[in-house]
Amino acid sequence: MNEPLLTVENLTKHFEVGRFGKKKYVRAVEGVSFKLYKSETLGVVGESGSGKSTLARLILGLIPITAGKVIYNDLDITGVSGKKEKEIRKDLQMVFQDPYASLNPRIKVGDAIAEPIIYNDIEKNRKKVKEKVNSLLELVGLQNKMYDRYPHEFSGGQRQRIGIARALSLNPKVLICDEAVSALDVSVQAQVLNLFNRLKRELDLTYIFIGHDLSVVKYISNRIMVMYLGETMELAKTDAIFTKTKHPYTKALISAIPMIDPDTNQKRIVLEGDIPNPINPPSGCRFSTRCYMAQDKCRKVHPDLLEIEEGHFVRCHYPLNGGEGNE
Amino acid sequence: MSNVVEFRNFNLGFKDDEGKAYNLLNDVSFEIKEGVALGVVGESGCGKSMLSLSILRLLPEAAVVQSGDILYKGDSILDKSISQLEEIRGKHISMIFQEPMTALNPVYTIGFQIGEALKTHYPKLDKKKIKEAVIDQLNKVGIPNPEARFDQYPHQFSGGMRQRAMIAMAMICNPQLLIADEPTTALDVTIQAQVLELMKKIKLAGSLLLVTHNLGVVAELCNEVIVMYAGCIVEKGDIKKVFKNPMHPYTKGLIAAVPGVEVSEGDLYTIPGTVPTIDKFENGCRFAPRCEYMSENCKGYIPTMKKVSENHYVQCFLYDGKGDN
């Protein structure tokens, strides 16, 4: 693979909670490291509380980092501010989850898309800005006569297209999509997924695609990172995640997908209990309390993320023998 | 096999602010047979929730029944008085709602809320008996330490536990029919798996009506399925027949648009356009504007339901009926 575009090193975020007495910390993201290569799509999967959205916000610098580094194009962008920050923000953009909440209901969608263009002085003259907005609308599959409409006139799928057009208005290199299709209906979700794939080809974009639905993330990603309670559990190429599953949690996630084929008699691994509280994560392996293969060592010793095959990282003392029982 | 609930040419409309009624559910006919798990699938706005609410007459005020009937064990539900209805609600037909966070009352204990249905329907039962029954039910739905949980409040329960409590509440009177409206949608994947396994296990004595947008959930739990689009049933029948050999262009598209588990290249199949809102429904087949097989036939009037094989029906001009409706 080519040079990494974005390198995340040991990224950690602890949120402070509780006003009185002893301070407690929600350990939302703990020591996450990965490299994002140019033109790839890295999928990030996890359940609620796994820290996937926090991770996106940390990379973009939307919330302060507790520890760790984000390196973009050989430049340490951790905690940059002012002019430099404005420069870097152009390259790293985000598409949000809720297409109903992320657009201002009183601003015409054309103006909403034009806003970042004007603010960043991409185009100075009014006519040029409008031309640019119209071309963006067409790029995401909307008509340019929609410039003067308000968000309530659009359906969920169209709003998500507007959100994408807005994120693309600054010609970003990296697009971080946080649950960008989760709120959409099946038939519309397929349209937007195809749009993401087309834009990637046409604009040579690099994606970090965050989601909770493994089958959707699988469809769009080259590599997948599985997170649990703030930590990376497994990171590998998409087909390796499915065919050479190493981590028991990943395996449980895959088996939890309900299949459409009524004939498949899948043996489902049902994880007992709930996701533990991130204020007080389990000692040893964070997954050990729900793991169906946990042994004494798992409850005492915290495993490291190891590269056990080329490009296949896993955080487990007893990784599964790849492919075992997957057929 | 006798029918628990039967919809007969049911038409349901919605009034706008000026009182003009728009038709949503169009000529809906189907039956829920005894002991059968029936799934209703469709995208948002297709009327699947309104369908389930109309069985217990829990419809919002703007809804108007335009024609047709709903029968419970042969008697019209629409003709029943409120007190007759209350006899049915919770005892004969009960419901699990989507959002376990909002469906439970935060100021009453879980035990009280589950026992309430018993207290209402069997006023002679004493407190001790009710508590025993509730704890037994909590045990059945897999809530650990039910004696202690009995006195706890909803905020002390996690999302998955609340949904289990909701199931316990719905099951406490052993209903003939359990209606579950998106019971796993608000839950995390691994918690959804737990609830699905639980629902498989408790495969009730009665029937199940499962409303969801997730085709996989229906495939796992149901024997029969109804596919809805814009208030019409476009296809219905045996789950294997409908999912393995979908006939209606919408069903075909819906199944093809779901990314599968196998790693695949290339674009996903998509249905062009979006689901219309209620004021923009076509006069003819409501799916026609998005359908690749649309012909002149499809405009003007809605096709009738045709039987294509035993327990497989489709509402589309593409198919000539091989038998009577």
Describe the structure.
Helix content of chain A is 31%, strand content 23%. The longest helix of chain A is centred in the middle third of the chain and has 18 residues, at 186-203. The model of chain A has no long low-confidence stretch (mean pLDDT 90). Chain A has helices spanning 52-59, 82-91, 109-119, 126-139, 156-168, 186-203, 214-220, 238-243, 248-255, 296-300, and strands at residues 4-17, 24-37, 41-45, 67-72, 75-76, 92-95, 174-178, 206-211, 223-228, 231-237, 306-309, 312-314. In chain A, the strands form 2 sheets. In chain A, strands 6-7-8-3-9-10-12-11 form an 8-stranded mixed beta sheet, sandwiched between helices. A 4-stranded antiparallel beta sheet of chain A has the order 2-1-4-5. Chain B has 325 residues and is α/β, with parallel strands linked by helices. Chain B folds into 2 domains: 3-92 and 175-324, P-loop containing nucleotide triphosphate hydrolases (Rossmann fold), CATH 3.40.50; 99-174, no CATH class. In chain B, the strands form 2 sheets. Chain B has an 8-stranded mixed beta sheet with strand order 6-7-8-3-9-10-12-11, with helices on both faces. In chain B, strands 2-1-4-5 form a 4-stranded antiparallel beta sheet, covered by helices on one side. In chain B, helix 4 runs parallel beside helix 7 (159-171) and helix 7 packs parallel to helix 8 (189-201). The radius of gyration of chain B is 21 Å and the shape is globular. The two termini of chain B are 19 Å apart. Residues 321-325 of chain B have low confidence and may be disordered. The chains are: A alpha/beta (327), B alpha/beta (325). Chain A binds chain B through residues 47-48, 155, 157-158, 185-191, 193-194, 197, 212-216, 218-219, 238-239, 242, 252-263, 268-272, 274-275, 290, and chain B through 43-44, 158-161, 188-194, 196-197, 213-217, 219-220, 239-240, 243-244, 253-255, 257-261, 263-264, 267-272, 274-275.
